[in-house]
């Protein structure tokens, strides 16, 4: 099956959107654990919701072939790297600021 360039670009963008949904949802879940009355339910519910939506989105790309699935996976992994770097720096900066305040 021959896939066109626009389909690869669309699959890459879809993978990026899937990644933002999955890892953004994970970030929101983790930040809400301390204030949750039932953190176990929050974690399990969030996981299954994120997993279901992610798998459904990948399943929607199946008719385009394995190349589109691979492009979507690349988009998801690129988004993971970007969010990890952005959120990781924000966390390190925030923790460094609070540690500096603790030293005074």
What does this structure look like?
It is a single chain. This protein has 104 residues and is mostly helical. It has one domain. Helices cover 85% and strands 0% of the residues. The chain has helices spanning 5-32, 39-60, 66-103. The protein starts with a helix and ends with a helix.
Measured by DSSP, the beta-strand proportion falls in under 5%
Indicate the radius of gyration in whole angstroms.
Answer: 18 Å
Contiguous uncertain segments of 5+ residues: none
The termini sit apart by 65 Å
**Computed structural class:** mainly alpha
Helix content: over 70%
The pLDDT mean sits at: 89
Tell me the major beta sheet: none
Shape: flat
Q: Can you count the helices?
A: 3
Q: Strand tally, please?
A: 0
Secondary-structure element order, N to C: HHH
Total separate domains: 1
Transmembrane segments: 6-29, 41-60, 66-83
InterPro entries: AtpR-like (IPR017581)
Pfam family, one: AtpR
Keywords: Membrane, Transmembrane, Transmembrane helix
Quick tags:
85% helix, single chain, 104 residues, mainly alpha
Helix-strand blueprint:
Blueprint (H helix, E strand, L loop, with lengths): L4 H28 L6 H22 L5 H38 L1
Pfam families: AtpR
Protein name: ATPase F0F1
InterPro entries: AtpR-like
Task: Give a quick precis of the structure.
The chain is an all-alpha fold and 104 residues long. It has helices spanning 5-32, 39-60, 66-103. Keywords: Membrane, Transmembrane, Transmembrane helix.
